Amino acid sequence: MTDENAHTIADRTLDDYRANAEAFRDGTRDHDVSQNIDALLRHIPGEPPFRILDLGCGPGRDLKTFTARGHIAVGLDGAEPFVNMARAETGCEVLHQDFLQLDLPAEAFDGVFANAVLFHLPSREIASVLLKLHTALRGGGVLFSSNPRGDNQEGWSGARYGTWYDWPTWRGLLQSVGFIELEHYYRPAGLPREQQPWLASVWRKG
Q1: Is the Cβ–Cβ distance between 73 and 91 less than 8 Å?
Q2: For residue 54, is pLDDT > 80?
Q3: What does the pLDDT look like over 92-112, one tens digit per residue?
């Protein structure tokens, strides 16, 4: 059972995204996450088009990329301005859901793209959310995740909450709910590790 404090954390973080939705859209419009999109797609078995859930889709940048590549993309976000932007920008189905109250159909997606989003959850809530994503994937389906890395610190960074996992902790969490590791890497590519703040990982539904 999610306690009130977790909902308060989620609401405060979403409030910051709601208040800064246009600035966020403008500031991230040109971010190149093709390495992450490729990492998800190349591991999905079977023949495309694939049905992809873009978890925390924001204004819809990556929904457009998945659609342009011929896939069926469904967005999900907890901030109403992002949901409206993404629907208008992409024409995709975009679900308005809080991550703490995900309501997803079972075995509905070939892939889940969770780019820079799961780290906003309090650590005590992450396993239950990961389990719901596991259930929403079809057999052999693939989860991609990218989070800012750290030493398992947790708390507020400005007006947004975050948990900065190290690799052993993150791997243990995913394995505990039934995911099988496919690969992991640090971003941006080609830089010394101390200049790579992002930990990306790809997982198959076990």
Answers
A1: no
A2: yes
A3: 999 999 999 999 999 999 999
Please give the single-letter amino acid code of residue 137.
L
Q: Any bridge partners for residue 117, and if so which? A: none
The DSSP line for 17-55 is HHHTHHHHHHHHTT---HHHHHHHHTT--SSSPPEEEEE
DSSP of 163-174? EE--HHHHHHHH
* Sheet containing 198-205: order of strands: 93-96, 72-77, 51-55, 109-115, 137-148, 198-205, 179-187
Which spans in the chain are helix H? 4-19, 21-28, 34-41, 61-68, 80-90, 123-136, 167-176
Q: List all residues 6 or more positions away from 35 whose beta carbon is below 8 Å from its beta carbon.
A: 187, 189, 200
Q: What are 53's strand-pairing partners?
A: 74, 112
Q: Residue 91 gets which letter from DSSP?
A: -
Pairing of strands 109-115, 137-148: parallel
pLDDT at 110: 98
**C-alpha closest to that of 18 among 89, 81, 84:** 81
Q: Which amino acid is at 118?
A: L
- Please give the structure tokens belonging to residue 32: 């190149």
CB-based contacts of 42: which residues, under 8 Å, 6+ apart?
A: none
| Exposure string over 130-163, b if 16+ CB within 10 A, otherwise e | bebbbbbbbeebbbbbbbebbeeeeeeeeebbbb
